[in-house]
# Entry
Amino acid sequence: MKKLVKLSLIASMALSSAYAAEASNVKEMFSNGETSGQVRVAYYSENPDAAGKTSTATAIGGQLKFETASLNGLSLGAAFYTAQAIDALSGDQKDGDYSGFLASDNENYTELAEAYINYATGDFNIRIGRQLIDTPLADSDDIAMTPHTFEAMVASYALPDIGLTFLAANIQRWQGVDSDYENVTNDSWADTSVGDTNLVAALYANDMIEAGLWYYDVDDVAKATYADAVVALPIDGAEVSVGVQYLSESEQASSTIDGSIAGAMVEASFGDITAGLAYNTLSLDTGKTIFEGFGGGSSFTNMETTTAGSIGEDGKSFVASVGYDFSGVNVFAAYGKFEADTSANFETTELDAGVSYEFNDGEADISLVYVD
# Structure
């Protein structure tokens, strides 16, 4: 179940340097650096109700990353991501029952997914190169074997005394499961637009409020303004958060993008139980569409397969979710209803449910997820 309150993660992404340790010379930059990694094994099966075969895949992969220590504010980072299909435990491509969701249609996927230079001085930070990014319309969306990464330049400046952060970025290309990587045969990196994608943002956070205002210029695609705010309410015996959001987009060149999404949510935690309600409305003119970004999108009602922006003119979506954590086990479920009453005449429901377990304080975990 996706956590709705996520603005603080965006702020920390913007401010983080490559590695906290300090070095006094180039040799110490590398000797005091840090190596990290992750191994994943996954099985995926999709059974369509309509015409089409059940497709399956099993893959092994993960990430291997090295970050140097910081020398006079300068640090470096690089990471390889990989996913390799296990043929004996996957469907056969010749029979049409292999899924490229985990390891692409090539049955393997390996990328130098991160390779960046980071410079930090005082409250200013800039990172240039291939990197993880999590913003409302460009995010890592880590739903398969590897997350998205972006070729980008991201700069931020913080005013910690008043809780304000300014962010600017230029994004050129991206890779990952949502960038059509299943069908890639050569270059796995896809352009984000005809030109570049540029964004500026202002973020504010204190003990009770997290808010953000974002502006994106996706060349020849759309101009988008996104705003949201989440307020933590002091209620005895519970942790309650209330949030609102608004996305407005206008077309560029000959694109058909023109519309808006508005939403509200409430999420409450009572001990080990968390429950949430979310609602979004989609406003489009006839023949127009909405751009939900490079990744999972920002709408409160977005689920594993259905999103608030995918349902057509005058769309409405509602999601109820619940989760229970105990002794490293998390059980969760979310139910969503999506409908559009105009010419699209669209209506569907989605159920996402699962269970996960963490071993040794998160050193390893196992998850089972069901989507209907």
About this structure: The first strand starts at residue 34 and ends at 46. The two ends are 14 Å apart (CA to CA).
